[in-house]
Amino acid sequence: MQRLLDPAVVSAAVELKMQRLLDPAVVSAAVERKMQLLLDPAVVSAAVEAKMEKLLDSAVVSGAVEVTMQRLLEEQQLKQELSLSQMKESLQLDLKDLKDLQDLNNLQDLKDLQDLKDLKDLQDLKDLQDLKAQLLVLDSETRQLLLHEVSALSRQMEDHQTESLSASEALRVRIQTLEQQNSKFSQEWSSLQMTPPPAPCPEPGLPPVQHQLTPELQQALEKWLSDRIKDQTSLRLTGSCSDCGRPDADKMADFALETQGQRHQTT
Question: Which of 112-126, 143-157, 205-219 has the highest mean pLDDT?
Fold first, then answer.
């Protein structure tokens, strides 16, 4: 129990656990993968371009209009052909009946034949007038139907254009928002990349290093001490020394100022 509750052992275990959890390489890699998934310009551009092409493709709109007009014309043509075929069949039946009637009346005299011929002409004229009236009515109904469908199709096209413009404006606002977010995330990512990694924790069990000098500072300190010793030696030899009575501990502050490029004044 004393070994398990030893502060040094507990501190070493905690520091080792923290090093594993807060490894800068692992954290940086996870953040980089997340930012790449969120800020991939190819994915954003592809999604926006596909949406714009789907909503604003003039070829699709023109194709839909052309298909609708072609369908209407084919239906109208079929109706007209059906009406003409029915009229033709009716006329053929009437002609057949008239032919049978003529065969039956071949034995009658010329006057009766003339009367039948006149009657047939009148009947044919009446049938032709009825046929002409039916064709006029059918043509008028067809024109009205086509005008109504064309007007409805024009309204649908206007509504589609209005919706397309609204969708385009909404997409433009969305794109601007995404660009702003992308810029913000890029700045944050740049700041994260420029942030230096945390200093590594000291190994457990080693005493902390205190008062460690860099090679440059140590070299500057040795040079300064050498210069000061030479100055003091020369002053002692000449016999005039106004700073000889100062202890070395008081002179260290002057060294700190001189290494920073400042001047000092001894009082």
Answer: 143-157
Residues contacting residue 37 through CB under 8 Å, at least 6 positions apart:
none
pLDDT of residue 266: 44
Which tens digit of pLDDT belongs to each residue from 229-246? 888 888 877 765 555 555
Helix (H, G, I), strand (E, B) or coil at 212: coil
List the one residue out of 267, 264, 254 whose CA is nearest residue 221. 254
> Token digits for 172?
């433009």
- Report CA 172 to chain centroid distance, whole Å: 10
Give SS3 for 76.
helix
Question: Is this model's pTM higher than 0.90 or not?
Answer: no
Task: Report how far residue 110's alpha carbon sits from residue 114's, in angstroms, rounded to the nearest whole number.
Answer: 6
**DSSP code at position 204:** T
Q: How open is the CA angle 148-150-154, to the nearest 5 degrees?
A: 115
List Cβ neighbours of 210 (8 Å cut-off, separation of 6 or more). Answer: none
CA distance 195 to 117: 112
Give the sign of the dihedral formed by CA 146, CA 151, CA 156, CA 158: positive
pLDDT in tens, 132-182: 888 888 888 888 888 888 888 888 888 888 888 888 899 999 999 999 999
Cα separation, 230 vs 22, in Å, equals 52
Q: Are 38 and 188 in contact (CB under 8 A)?
A: no
Identity of residue 44: V
